[in-house]
Write a structure and sequence with these properties.
Chain A has helices spanning 43-60, 63-70, 147-157, and strands spanning 14-18, 21-29, 78-89, 98-108, 112-121, 124-137. Chain A is an alpha+beta fold and 162 residues long. In chain A, a hairpin with a 2-residue loop joins β1 and β2 (21-29). β3 of chain A pairs antiparallel with β3 of chain D.
């Protein structure tokens, strides 16, 4: 069951099937907190926004998968942590703008997941990232991602990986 | 004309008329960035959320008012800055929760505006703030808020100020 | 034993006895991350800086007190959380400036502590706060502050409370 | 003339000549604001720390170079902005730890500068980044870095680039 919020249906963004494959989109508004004295968005704000995109992408994969992740499914509590991240900052963005964070599955490994994420303003790509996350138990050791969850990720990335 | 985003209609929240008056509501999701090692939301995150609420409340007051504020209406560019803020942190909140930031006009002065803001989770009040903002020109001097804008604020606070 | 770092002796600031009493001073540099598009420091940055001041003030009270706090002294693990905070934002500050966060004990209660904190640039007060923190166990219940720790706080505030 | 703060001599870190070349070191304390609910440092905090390291590295290059950068030397006001960044997150770090941000010059281009930065805890590398920054005028166009400034950067990286 997908975890939708009744009062605010789009709060976790949407999973869409575009011409270039299935992906998750999360809208982000640029607030004061995201900018710096240069007048533009501070570069670390994109890093926070990419994390929001990944969190909501996982959220929309539905309850069963989150149960696997948070340990409520009977397995050891665990979380995805970022292992590697590379970002190209291509264009500036500014206060009050509405941007969209796109998240796509690139590769599914035994204990890791590689995502391609972009921040766009309409058709303009503002920033682009490749992010590798690994599943780590609360006690700190890497965990194998369950077959069900890997299958769900593969499904997400399906049409994208042509 | 109210400034609505077509693709994401609720992105700036909503102005609602409740039993206790008209106010603005903005939903906020708790992400990793908002929490700290205690497992709870970091207290300064509420300060950022209150600012988002105020920004989107102003946004929904519509284009004419924003033109006054940002100088595009022919007046000197200016912004509301926080002059005083007091916050009560009443209950903890946690990762993944959906909270709502409520913003109400309490008092409209010649150059200042006092707002009452709360963060709620359903019927539970998590944090409560009283915030006074003043209109400051880019060159740093306090500005008189235009009569049109003051009237708009009074209108917002109308049923609330019984 | 006070917890000093050998390589960076001032990293946690200093406890000083001034004409107006004993207090803790922590220097803070204004970086990109602390500013917003207005060109000034973002108001929530002061909230983060006040927290740094309180953390380092506690740090310099010495190891025994921290052991009480973090549970390593055999008591239940606990942390001070902010219960109430009021801030006056008096003057703007800007990128690259060196500011000082002053922290003074105002009142010591059974389970709470009230501090007065200011951010200064030389003799100019930029922001001023009164902050009440309470000791909360990891399981969420308020804890009585140990007599030893209360005595240490009283000692800090001694000359200040004339 | 190097820009030292009299009261807090190490506030901008230090330039040191190590066995593996000259580099800049900035100490960083882990505060509440830097952690998340996993109990560890939030990954975007490293991005902020790397920026602090770069800012203070530039600061210690001395006043003349900063004058070039901020336009007070008679040239167009400009700032270095991040164009590309890749980070490996190798080990976790935790609240209260003292870390060191190391910054080294890797390559000096006509309008860009590539730096290698690490976050260490004693001999342990916590995170490692390669960051390319470009000099951009306030109006948004890339600027040629002055020969004097390029020479200063080359000097910094000298022993490192054997």
């Amino acid at each position: 069951m997908s975890e939708k919020n009744e009062s605010w249906p789009d709060l976790a963004g949407r999973v869409v099937d575009g011409p270039d494959g299935r992906h998750h989109i999360l809208p982000v508004r640029v607030y004061f907190e995201d900018t710096d004295f240069s007048g533009l968005v501070y570069h670390a704000s994109y890093v926070r926004w990419f994390e929001r995109g990944r969190s909501d992408f996982l959220r929309l994969l539905g309850g069963d998968h989150r149960r696997l992740i948070d340990g409520s499914g009977g397995t050891e509590p665990a979380a995805f942590v970022v292992r590697r991240m590379s970002i190209d900052f291509l264009k500036p963005s500014r206060i009050d703008e509405v941007l969209e964070v796109e998240t796509r599955v690139k590769q599914v490994g035994a204990a890791s997941l590689t995502l391609v994420q972009t921040v766009r303003r309409s058709d303009t790509t503002i920033a682009e990232a490749e992010v590798t996350v690994v599943l780590i138990s609360v006690s700190g050791k890497p965990l194998r991602i369950s077959e069900a969850l890997r299958e769900a990720f593969r499904e997400q990335g399906k049409s994208a990986s042509v």
